[in-house]
C-alpha cells in the first residue's frame, strides 16, 4: 500500500508540472543523424517509384516507426501502473454500488409498508379498551391506542430514516471514489499525451533533416507518413467506464 501511495504521488507530481518531456542533445543528435542518413540513402525508393500519394499507401519511416513503438510501450506501462493503483478504488466502488442496491430494495419495502399504514389509527382500534380501562373516558382510551399506533408506525419510519442515511453515505463515498478514479485517469492521460508530443517532436526533427538531404522533397512528402504516434484514447484510461451501468440516475430517491 505504501509503495502504491508513493508511486501515485510521484505520478501526480509529474502531471502537475505540465512541462514537456526533456528533449536532450543525445536524442536530438540521434534524430538528426537518422534523418540525414535516410535522406542520403535510397530506403524510400520503392515507395517513390509507386508514387502512392493516398494516406493508405503512405510509408512510415523506420525511425518514426521506432519512436511510435517506444511511445506505445510507455503508454502501455503507464496504463498498467495506474490501473494497479486504481484497482482497490474500483473494487470499493463496486462494493458500494452493490450495497446501495441492497439498501434500495429494503427502502422500497419499508416505504411500501409505511404507505399502507395511515397516520391515524382506525376508529375500531381507537375504541378498543384493555382490562383496566373499563371506566376510562373514550378520549383517554383513544389517546392511548393512538400512541401505540404511532409507536408501531414510528418503527418503520425510523427504519426508513436509517436506510436513507446509509444510502446517502454510500453514495457520497461513491462520489469520492469516482473523483479519485477520474483524477488517476487525468494523471495517466496527461503523462501519455506529453510523451506523445515528445515523440512527435522527435519525428519532426528527423523529418527536417531528411528533407534537407533528399533530392526530391516534394515527392517524398506525398509518400511518407510523419504523423507520429496515434492519439491515445482520451477517456476510460483503465477500461473501467460504466462500472455499474447507469446505476446513479436509477437509484431510489433519498430525501435530504
Ordered list of secondary-structure elements with their pairings:
Blueprint: H1 2-17, H2 25-40, H3 45-50, H4 62-115, H5 123-126, H6 138-213, H7 217-223, E1 243-246, H8 247-250
Helix pairs in contact: 1-6, 2-6, 4-6
Detailed description of the structure:
The protein is mainly α and 256 residues long. It has one domain. Helices cover 71% and strands 2% of the residues. It has eight helices and one strand; from the N terminus they run αααααααβα. The protein is rod-shaped and about 120 Å long.
Strand content: under 5%
From the alpha-carbon coordinates, what is the Rg to the nearest angstrom?
34 Å
Low-confidence residue ranges: 52-56, 233-256
Q: Domains counted in the coordinates: how many? A: 1
Strand tally is 1
Secondary-structure-derived class:
mainly alpha
Q: What share of the residues lie within helices?
A: over 70%
H-E order? HHHHHHHEH
What gap, in angstroms, lies between the N and C termini? 36 Å
Q: How would you characterize the largest beta sheet?
A: none
Counted by DSSP, the helix tally is: 8
Average predicted confidence as pLDDT: 75
Anisotropy-based shape? rod-shaped
Amino acid at each position: 500500500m505504501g509503495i502504491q501511495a508513493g508511486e501515485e504521488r510521484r505520478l501526480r507530481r509529474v502531471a502537475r508540472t505540465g512541462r514537456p518531456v526533456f528533449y536532450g542533445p543525445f536524442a536530438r543528435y540521434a534524430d538528426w543523424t537518422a534523418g540525414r542518413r535516410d535522406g542520403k540513402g535510397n530506403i524510400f525508393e520503392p515507395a517513390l517509384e509507386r508514387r502512392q500519394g493516398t494516406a493508405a499507401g503512405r510509408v512510415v519511416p523506420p525511425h518514426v516507426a521506432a519512436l511510435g513503438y517506444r511511445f506505445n510501450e510507455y503508454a502501455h506501462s503507464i496504463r498498467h501502473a495506474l490501473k494497479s493503483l486504481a484497482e482497490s478504488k474500483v473494487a470499493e466502488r463496486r462494493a458500494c454500488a452493490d450495497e446501495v442496491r441492497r439498501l434500495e430494495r429494503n427502502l422500497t419495502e419499508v416505504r411500501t409498508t409505511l404507505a399502507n399504514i395511515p397516520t391515524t389509527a382506525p376508529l375500531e382500534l381507537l375504541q378498543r379498551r384493555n382490562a383496566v380501562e373499563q371506566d376510562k373516558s373514550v378520549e383517554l382510551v383513544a389517546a392511548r391506542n393512538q400512541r401505540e399506533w404511532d409507536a408501531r408506525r414510528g418503527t418503520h419510519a425510523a427504519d426508513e430514516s436509517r436506510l436513507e442515511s446509509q444510502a446517502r453515505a454510500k453514495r457520497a463515498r461513491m462520489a469520492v471514489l469516482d473523483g479519485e478514479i477520474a483524477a488517476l485517469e487525468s494523471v495517466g492521460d496527461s503523462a501519455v499525451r506529453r510523451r506523445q508530443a515528445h515523440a512527435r517532436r522527435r519525428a519532426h526533427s528527423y523529418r527536417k533533416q531528411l528533407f534537407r538531404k533528399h533530392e526530391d522533397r516534394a515527392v517524398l512528402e506525398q509518400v511518407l507518413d510523419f504523423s507520429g504516434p496515434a492519439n491515445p484514447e482520451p477517456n476510460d484510461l483503465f477500461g473501467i467506464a460504466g462500472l455499474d451501468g447507469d446505476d446513479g440516475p436509477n437509484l431510489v430517491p433519498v430525501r435530504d
